[in-house]
Amino acid sequence: MMNMKLVGAMTGLALLAACSSHNSDTGAATGSGAGAFGSRGPLPGSQEDLVANVGDRVFFAFDSSQISSDARSTLDRQAGWLGRYPQVRVQVAGNTDDRGTEEYNLALGQRRANAARDYLVAQGVNSSRLSTISYGKDRPTALGDNEEAWAQNRNAITSVR
Known about the structure:
This protein has about 160 residues and is α+β, with helices and mostly antiparallel strands. A four-stranded mixed beta sheet has the order 1-4-2-3. It has a domain at about 60-160: CATH 3.30.1330.60.
């Protein structure tokens, strides 16, 4: 009887030890991102590199496709990044908030994508490396019916292709 209790206790301790050591990589769980790229950071010229070191999106005012000074700063960094990686092609996706008709928002999203593309071309990026698409209001990045969510959804997002 005593040996059975001892064996049961040892088995229980072994199971607890196995459970606690199984969760040793906490980098991804805490959001630190260390596990995603390793100690060297994102692969140069990748989407992750663009997001981490340059910024992949610019924002627009309500009902506008005008490039703001903040957007110019981000697009300048994107143009420089694209200059360092001449093999990279990107797509610029124009997006809107959820107000307005489907047709209107698709057209506004396209104007936003075109404005960002045209700015990059003016900064020396070869237009053959850039494509555009409009998602209108179909791909929101923020959920909600308030100004904060709408402001996040009025954007043009650059993605490596």
